[in-house]
Amino acid sequence: MRGERLTAAQHRLVAQLTRISESESIPLEAALGRYLADDVLAPVDVPPRAVSLYDGYALAGPVVSDSIWPVVGESFAGDSPPPLSTNAAMRIFTGSVLPDGANAVIAQEAVDRTGDAIRLNESISPGDGVRPRGADSRQGDCILEAGTRLDAPQLGLLASVGHGFVSVVRKPRIAVFTTGNELIQPGEPLAPGKIYNANHPMLVGALSRLGVTVLDLGCLPDDADRLRAALAGAATQSDLVITSGGVSVGEADFVRQVVEELGRVDQWRVFLKPGKPLAFGDVAGTPFIGLPGNPVSTFVTFFLFVRPAIRVLSGADPDIDRPPLRLPLAESRPAGDRPEFVRVRRTRDGAGQTNLSVFRNQNSGLLSSMAWADGVALMPVGVDLVAGDVVDYFPFEAWYL
């Protein structure tokens, strides 16, 4: 069985998921990385009154070059200045409220001041130098939509309209465990036939970066009864269960078998390299994603499938159709029989051109390649590529957003 195409499998997975219904109101300072539960409307205009764009003079009346204006006061940021009479000027500073009656602001560099009067060195038009009331947002406007991920600019926007608290979707609870008789925990003596469990801290770390609540169920042996109990328990506590290992066709690969007993496997195998032995479905109604066991396959499929699932659970767009970056390869690459995500690093050639250098060995068990790389590039099926050919590039940092 060759396996389903990547994008089709991704869309089929997210189509089975729904947003978590519970929400909570939290302080703005605690909302970084969370997802809005509801649309946010502006309760006030921003700015609430017209303000000056720069240091200068607010003017009331027709503005022409060489005219002379008496200066009748000052408006500092935070002041509520008195009205300005016609044909008069008021000293004003960046962000200060425009006095009633003023219709423009002239920059201080464009005037000559002598005592309490200024001479204008240029003509300006009504509205120049002014940020009007409501220029940023108007009362009643939807300033952020439900499902928006709150980063620093969004927090600033919410603060600008006076929101001290915000309603966000409850953090998804993600149960995770790894499987394999060969695995031991880092820090323990390395016994014959054993390897250290690298996938577990990698998955827990990636989940933590995505801002979820992690239910860490540790590492389980290749034992059907132990797996059955763990999966059944995880399904009652979590919004999504993910595992690493045990979904291939080996005699000790029990995860797929147990999932089918407790629920269903909707997808098995994806036409992809690395990461072909991937499964998803549900355990007693709770969504399940079974990642492959090789570390690189685990990492790549985590971000191709688990990350979109978490976004949908949080009420956001799955972000699986966003156009990738397009960059040229620094070297040739032979054709493959499956779409392949190869580990690459951005480099610059002698002409200052950014290229993608490919790691020397693309074996899916080499975590050193992931630590070296800053992203992956997608190699199309059946195409011999040469240096300079442009490919799709996915930087790792974008996968954490």
From TrEMBL:
Pathway(s) the chain acts in: Cofactor biosynthesis; molybdopterin biosynthesis
Gene Ontology cellular-component terms listed: cytosol
SMART domains the record matches: MoCF_biosynth (SM00852)
InterPro entries for this protein: MoaB/Mog-like_dom_sf (IPR036425), MoaB/Mog_dom (IPR001453), MoCF_biosynth_CS (IPR008284), MoeA-like (IPR038987), MoeA_C_domain_IV (IPR005111), MoeA_C_domain_IV_sf (IPR036688), MoeA_linker/N (IPR005110), MoeA_linker/N_sf (IPR036135)
Record-level Gene Ontology MF annotations: metal ion binding; molybdopterin molybdotransferase activity
Record-annotated MoaB/Mog domain positions: 175-312
GO biological process: Mo-molybdopterin cofactor biosynthetic process
Cofactor(s) it depends on: Mg(2+)
UniProt record similarity statement: Belongs to the MoeA family.
Functional note: Catalyzes the insertion of molybdate into adenylated molybdopterin with the concomitant release of AMP.
Record-given protein name: Molybdopterin molybdenumtransferase
Organism (species): Halothiobacillus diazotrophicus
Lineage: Bacteria, Pseudomonadati, Pseudomonadota, Gammaproteobacteria, Chromatiales
